[in-house]
Fold:
Amino acid sequence: MNRNLTDSELVQVCEVIAARIGLHFPVERWAILGRNLALAAREFGFQNMNEFIQWLLSSKLNKDQIKILASHLTISETYFLREPQVFTALSDFVLPELIKSKKKRDRSIRIWSAGCSTGEEPYSIAIALHKTIPEIKDWNISILATDINSKALDKAATGIYGPWSFRNTPDWFKTRYFHDLGDRRFEIIPEIKNMVTFYPRSLIDDNIFSAIANKMDIIFCRNVLMYFTSDWVSKISQNMFQSLSEDGWFVVSSSELSAHVFPMYTPVNFPGAVLYRKTKKEYIQPFDFSLIEIQEPLKQPFQLLSFVPRIDEDLQQLSSKALADEALQPFNPSTLQQPKSTPEESYADKIFAIRLLANQGYLSEALSLCNKAIASEKLAPGFYFMRASILQEMDKTSEAITSLKQGIYIDPDYVMGHFILGNLFIRQRNSKNAKRYFKNVLDLLNGRANDDILPESDGLSVKYIREIIIANMQIHE
Ligand SMILES: C[S@@+](CC[C@H](N)C(=O)[O-])C[C@H]1O[C@@H](n2cnc3c(N)ncnc32)[C@H](O)[C@@H]1O
Structure:
């Protein structure tokens, strides 16, 4: 079975694979291709490689056969929150703008994760939506997730993942949106699972595109097209362009960004990420802040966000040179440590600036800004809470506990403070203290409606917190 294929056979096999699956196998990957074809031959029931190659080159493969072949030739590597800057751009800018515009219309959002593999990408998107949309039940959200590899989709549909899928996620991601099944496996909660629909579909099948013309608000197609032949890349990206609604977004991975390959889209720069947009606008404002709806009043200093307009000629069209100069400032955390402080700079401004730094991984800068905020406003418990989150990220649990205790000292009714303290004590295996703080939370929540959302909880409901606490108290009895 394990015989080496000749160059001439490999060239012909590559043509079949390019035509039927879209994949490109350069000469450097022929050794891998040969090995994977041997595995495919076995699954198709061939004992003899010659016979398999003859069959592959001469038969008209049906859809199921193409899927089997693809499952051996595609790379299904993926994990939750892959390229986190993309998810920050999504949660902080793209979704708020979309929500604002859709709120006045049909309250529907359609997202497509094309080449979703085992589901970590569409579920990460669902979680971003869940965190960003306050009353998600009133919205019609559809996340379509497709892949040619049915085995990957079967795993996606179980919603059960091991530690490797969480290699890039913060604690809250797993604790809030997954049930621990034991055995180091975690199952996504039904609320998120139900937001995603998986379909086995090939991207080189035109039917999938005609069904969704002009309908999608955002298409993710990350780490997929990089394996395709250049003809297919341009055809698929054109088709995706047609599938997007006006002003829709097309998201590829940072290694696939190319103005040459995706000329019909307009690149828009975000901190650490570039997304493509289908738009008729003559130029792209670095970002139109008037579209972002933020609950607290926010006087955002522009350069904080460090959006860089896409190319020089865009800049010439910006009406204000000053604005352009400011926008071109490279992201510099030290300037953020001393934001242009105005006497009326609000609590929300400061929290926003600290969160931005922390989200981008500038933890010590975020911490120092937070300490300054505490020094100037000692009685605002939110800063202590924020500082504890940063310290947690830095793996400084004891300091995080101290900060939370200070916050609670100022405001003993600060529910989230008690809740996080309980969780931190669990992490320290101190169940006695954990129970004490969890009990405080239950007492404070007494009489509150189940669907109340707790302030500064990133959208957690009273019911959800009660359930987590009860589960935790049982486990650690
Ligand atoms: C590396 S994974 C990317 C997963 C995810 N998008 C991410 O970025 O983490 C590439 C996926 O593309 C899928 N794929 C390859 N060829 C395809 C095709 N012709 N149609 C649909 N999906 C395809 C593979 O099965 C694989 O699951």
Summary: The two ends are 58 Å apart (CA to CA). The chain has three domains: 7-73, 84-277, 344-475. The first helix runs from residue 7 to 20. Residues 84-277 form a domain with the Rossmann fold fold (CATH 3.40.50.150).
